[in-house]
Design brief:
Blueprint lengths: L16 E2 L8 E2 L5 H16 L9 H8 L11 E2 L2 E2 L7 E3 L7 E3 H35 L2
Antiparallel strand pairs: 1-2, 3-4, 5-6
């Protein structure tokens, strides 16, 4: 698989709407969805090859854009040397220690795994005690 990194410079501000479920509100995205970029690249491919309404009959176009051979990810904001990516909602900033963030979901899984290991240990210990008890009863 090959990857091509590119930088998009907009000539004017973009406003990309997002579905929020509330018909009276319009939320906006802070990134350019990969589906929009795929549409833009597909449109350019159609124009350059003069495919028009028969684009779907072109083998390469079909494979890359319709079948999904070409993977195009979302475009996120870069400002200076900083790359901005979305953060899962499970990541929360500590209100007492600004600048420290924790992934609550990850911590929950780690606690769950510790409890699971403790339960497995206790179960193995209990099984071993039963085996020892039977062994001692059998050796009399």
């Amino acid at each position: 698989m090959q990857a091509i990194k590119y930088c998009i410079t907009t000539l004017s501000p973009l406003l990309l709407a997002s579905n929020t479920g509330d018909p009276n509100m319009v939320a906006t995205l802070d990134y350019i969805p990969g589906t929009c970029l795929r549409g833009m690249f597909a449109n350019e491919y159609i124009k350059k090859r003069k495919l028009g309404e028969n684009a779907h009959k072109d083998e390469t176009f079909y494979r890359r854009f319709l079948k999904g051979e070409l993977k195009i990810t979302n475009a996120y904001i870069i400002y200076g040397n900083y790359h901005y990516y979305p953060v899962p909602l499970s990541v929360q900033e500590d209100k007492n220690e600004k600048g420290n963030a924790y992934d609550l979901l990850l911590e929950m899984f780690q606690k769950q795994r510790k409890l699971q290991r403790k339960a497995e240990f206790l179960l193995k210990r209990q099984s071993l005690m039963v085996i020892l008890k039977r062994f001692r009863q059998g050796s009399r």
